[in-house]
Amino acid sequence: MSKVSLIDIHILNKLLSSVAEEMGIVLKKSAFSANIKERKDFSCAIFDSKARLLAQAAHIPVHLGAMPMTVSNMLKLKQPYKGDVIWSNDPFLGGTHLPDITMLKAVFLENEDEPIFYVVCRAHHADIGGKYPGSMALVEDIKDEGVMISPEYIIKNKQIIEKNFNHFLTRVRKPEERKGDILAQLACLERGSKRLIQLVKSWGKEKILSVIDMLIDYGERVMKETIKEIPNGEYEFCDALDDDGFNKEPIWIKVNIKIKDDQAILDFSNTDRQVKSSINTVKSVTASCCYYVFFCLLGEDYPINHGSLAPIKIVTQPATIVDAQRPAPVAAGNVETSQRIVDVILGALSKALPDKIPAASCGTMNNVSFGGIDPRNNKEFTYYETIGGGMGASPNMDGLSAVQVHMTNTLNTPIEAIEYEYPVMIEKYKIRRNSGGCGKFKGGDGIIRSFKFLFNGTLSLLTERRIFSPYGLYGGTSGKKGKNLVFIDDKIIKLSGKTTINIKKGDILEIYTPGGGGWGIDRG
Asked: What span, in angstroms and rounded, lies between the C-alpha atoms of 293 and 276?
């Protein structure tokens, strides 16, 4: 075999990443639901035969950082052979929350009995059953959030296991849409497998395996060099979630970050205990948040893989808000608490790297889900989306306005798509001017989005930063808090950040998302 060069490492990294990106394209173009085909609420990644992360597409940060734990746990319980696919959405086995279904397929070379790769995809399904449409509501038990799938085969010997598949479809709303999205995930895995086999045939197995080891080693070395640029020391920060939706007490997340040479230890031991609502977060999501922040410091041109994760250690206490235990509900932990975990990590690092770290962004995904009977066809439907907000200002630029930030990387649902597919009219969709914090650099502005409902049904909101504003840094002011309003019979009612209510035809929901914090003192 010829000598492996740094160029080979970079080329293989880009090739593997491009396979993950192509998997995502297949999933998007094959999916049925607006949440996947329009909002791109999915992620794809590639692992080697040792279940080490090799490459990922530029998809959803909260999905991708949790995947290594997911893959490890899935393979401990099931060993896929040729043509097999395993699926799971168990948050306590490395998942995120129940709507995110993960599928894993082993990739085999011809005439070999040991896999050379694993291809993985995770997609957020617009309904996974449970107590309320959309499966993203305020509940007290994870059983009310929907169907939990422990790692099991969805395909065995290249055949769909109809018993498992049909049992799932009977427990969710709009099963034909769920079926379409599941089949799209399977198609995405098939494409990834095909491309990886082609890659091995082109490069040769021996060279591929050699470069993989060097790629992982390179990822670790680059991350260690990045951590070395942070001054040694301990850095602390805390910030609060508004409440758990049942009680009005804030829930505090606290981190101590210890930097010692090329290692980073993030300790969340003093964080508040888990609560009865769904803002609890599993450890895999907390880990994902930690990795995300350090990946941001790493920059765009370096590999993100198993080696990149090695220098980052995460410490939590079981049964806290950042390491929830069964049977705690966790739907909002993935989308809301994850944002606050990022806020506290960035807040701590701002003390070490004041010239690099931005102020707090909007700090919420502003989750909206609703469902009922569509009067146009008399069929049940569900809808889910997240709404962007303001980005925090950085030490050298204003924050962007009306964008998805940090742990989400989804798109909005286009007005044309939502009005065509669902009994809803979007009456207002615009930038919330002057909602970003002031300072030398200004925080980005949030969004105003209003829905007029043309059906009778149920609405659920899981939102944050309605009580505590996104913080500014170094003299910058806070961004404006968000608010949720509903117009019913000419009355304006202010809704709490986390709620489920009945709605009727003609009601209007208006969401005001938070702006980002400002950075630095405005000298005028």
From this structure: 28
pLDDT value at 377 more than 90: yes
C-alpha–C-alpha distance, residues 252 and 405, integer Å: 21
Q: Cα separation of 24 and 467, whole Å?
A: 37
The partner residues of 490 in beta bridges, in order of sequence, read: none
Structure token pair of residue 56: 């990922």
What whole-number distance in Å separates Cα of residue 81 and Cα of residue 94? 22
* Lowest mean per-residue pLDDT among 49-63, 64-78, 199-213, 391-405: 49-63
User: Cα(469)–Cα(46) distance, rounded to whole angstroms?
Assistant: 38
The answer to whether residues 429 and 415 touch, using CB atoms and an 8 Å cutoff, is yes
Contact 334, 462 (CB under 8 A): no
Supply the Cα-derived Rg of the chain in whole angstroms. 22
**How many percent of the chain have pLDDT more than 90?**
90
Please state, in angstroms and rounded to a whole number, the distance separating the CA atoms of residues 478 and 361: 10
Against a cut of 0.90, is the pTM above it? yes
pLDDT band for position 63 (cuts 50, 70, 90)? confident
DSSP secondary-structure letter at 393? P
CA-to-CA distance for 485 and 281, rounded, in angstroms?
27
Indicate the SS3 state at residue 318. Answer: coil
Residue closest to 238 by CA, chosen among 257, 258, 252, 222 = 252
Q: What is the dihedral of CA 93, 97, 101, 105, to 10 degrees?
A: -30
Separation between Cα atoms, residue 259 and residue 293, nearest integer Å:
14
Cβ neighbours, 10 Å, residue 76 = 11
Cα distance between residue 501 and residue 479, in whole Å: 28
Question: Binning pLDDT at 50, 70 and 90, where does residue 64 land?
Answer: confident
Per-residue confidence (pLDDT) for residue 2, from 0 to 100: 55
Q: If DSSP codes are grouped into helix, strand and coil, which group holds residue 154? A: strand
Report the alpha-carbon distance of residue 460 to residue 329 in Å, rounded. Answer: 15
Count of C-beta atoms within a 10 Å radius of residue 385: 25
User: How far, in whole angstroms, is CA 314 from its chain's centroid?
Assistant: 18
- Give which of 270, 398, 259, 397 is closest to 322, Cα–Cα: 270
pLDDT class for 93, splitting at 50, 70, 90? very high
Residue written as token pair 């279904």: 101
